[in-house]
Amino acid sequence: MTDVLLSCALVWAVFLALHLALNGRWWPWLAVSLLPPLAFAAVPLALLAAAAVSGGWTAGAVAAGCLLAGWTQNGVNLRALGRRSEAGAGLHLVSWNTQHWNQGGDPGRFYAFLRSLSADVYVLQEYLNGFEGGEVWDIDDEERIRAAFPGHHLAVGNNSVTLSRFPPAGAPVPVGACSLRVDLRVGEGVLSTYNVHIPVQLTVMNPLRPAFLRDMRRRAAARDREYAALVADLRGNPHPVLVTGDFNTSAAIGDIRRMPRSLRDAIGACRSVLPASWNARARLRLWRIDWAFTGGGARVGSYRFRAAEGLSDHLVQELTVTTPHR
């Protein structure tokens, strides 16, 4: 029993070493890194429990080392255990991947849900129609948006929508091919909002077909370009920033390490120990692929994921943000 347990622990240790070495550096590993992040805690904890029962202390030591070495990959938010409830002062912002902007649904219900969020700023992704693995096409729903949100300023670009009660401080700036920067005049200063949508890693198809690898390599290159454009714009931006959206990147995917270290992950303001944003339609949600970051003096007061009422496969990110000038 102890020999089998040690073998299992060593196999996991080898896998973890490969993951830490290749994740975010070798594009084929993107498929492997789709593993639910919680596995990087669950597997070594299960090995530790088995070692405690069987007395396999060597296996237990290996498992403990794996738990520590892979801790940043598991998505567990221990800061939530010591966090107290806050009033959440500041501007109220929601960020949401709408899953093809109410494609095939009831527009009245869709816009009623958006209005019910009562946000100062809406950062919305997938302002388009289409389907996974097939053609997508642009849409024009600006007249309905303006009618539904008469007190908001509208910016549209790169298949993204940013709605704000605060006036723009300039024209919207496309970032790469999939994200949109909108500078807002907040108080006496400017807050730069980044509406982010990083391309998904792969198309669901037979992984044994050559087309699968070609598609994944193409998508990996597109992800590289989008992250590079986003990071370059952030590094040249002198304003406080809020960067949020659908990154299609979990804690177990090395791409998230590309975000500048000067940014602060909003998860520190979240009260969930196991935060997850996808799949909103499933009972068990295992991936947090929607993120929010602040920098340049902007700070998050409260942060949570809320139900999308069946309108999307992504939960809604809801947060309050303060800036140095407000």
Which strand order do you get reading across the main beta sheet? 5-6-2-1-14-13
Extended strand count: 14
How big is the Rg?
Answer: 21 Å
Structure classification? alpha+beta
Q: Which stretches of 5+ consecutive residues score pLDDT under 50?
A: none
Helix tally? 8
How are helices and strands ordered from N to C?
Answer: HHHHEHHEEEHEEEEEHEEEEE
CA-based shape: globular
Distance between the termini: 62 Å
Mean pLDDT figure: 94
Q: State the share of residues found in helices, binned by percent.
A: 25-40%
Q: What is the subunit organization of this protein?
A: single chain
Summarize the biggest pleated sheet: 6 strands, mixed
Name the beta content range: 15-25%
Strand and helix map with partners:
Elements lengths: L1 H21 L6 H4 L6 H16 L2 H13 L21 E7 L1 H4 L4 H10 L4 E5 L3 E2 L5 E2 L4 H7 L4 E5 L2 E5 L8 E3 L3 E8 L2 E9 L12 H26 L5 E6 L17 E2 L24 E6 L3 E8 L9 E7 L4
Parallel strand pairs: 1-2, 9-10
Antiparallel strand pairs: 1-14, 2-6, 3-4, 5-6, 7-8, 8-9, 10-12, 11-12, 13-14
Helix pairs in contact: 1-3, 1-4, 3-4
